[in-house]
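Q: Structure tokens for this one, please.
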Amino acid sequence: MIGAGMAGLACAGAMHAAGWDVTVFDKGRRAGGRLATRRADGLQFDHGAAYASARGPAFQAVLDSMGASGDAAPWTAAGPDRWAGTPGMSALARHMEGRGVGTVHTMRHAAHLERQAAGWMVRHHDAATAAPGLVTDTGGEVAGPFEAVLLAVPAPQAAGLLRAVPHRFAAEAGRAGMAPCWALMAGFAGPSGAPDVLCPGGPLTWIARDTSRPGRAAAPECWVAHASAEWSWTHLEDSAETVRTALLQAFASATGLQGTPAYASVHRWRYALADSPLGVPALWDREAGLGVCGDWCLGARIESAYDSGCALAGMAGA
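A: Here is the predicted structure, written as tokens:
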């Protein structure tokens, strides 16, 4: 399994539960992908996926399980039927991993796939030194053979790996659009009086007081703001300092908070939003033992990633 975001964890979990020996490679420091929580200077920010919600019974059962274990709770400030991880969104990933997903190797960037007579071989590099999107058949370490390889990574990354195989799914992955998002994290010592959640439009489409999330202390106030896809595309390669300055100005305009924050930083999610999904649950080539899943197959929701991962596991024999 390549990728340990929600889609990868759901797929790996279903395969593991069905008795498969599952190995997962992920480039992050921990599993979860955009189910991410940043901690800095005693502050905490959920700077990736803002919340989870369910439209179908399968994912609602997962949220109910997370609620029962204390890993998630309804976030009433964000609106009805919206759940937040407790104490952070990364708790959702820990819950999925805790249910059993096989062996997870973090900080490993999968750079090449090769199908040999004995099975699939995965070449992986130290993610701390591998260039983003690196595809190479040299260096690093090689793991395998594996009976099947399942990809649960953003569409452009999947397309790069699949072109090098080569495999026809590369064209499908290349067809799925994914938009970037710059995220601003700001901490303030005192109360602001601003609304807990704002969707102002313009440069910023989402602003939330993270300290309004369930189980959080009210102070110091921690805020997360997401830039629009259009703004993020325009400023995709700008420096972090330039983006931080611009988004702080937009944040102050939208919230009325004019003081200098005690903490402020930004994070670029290069593949944040599945804005042109394929409209299929997953892709599976039984003969090759190769499959692909992700939110970009179904839609820009955590539930979509979960459903896609479960669908691929079912296709692959879970």
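A few notes: The mean pLDDT is 96. Residues 116 and 286 are 16 Å apart (CA to CA).
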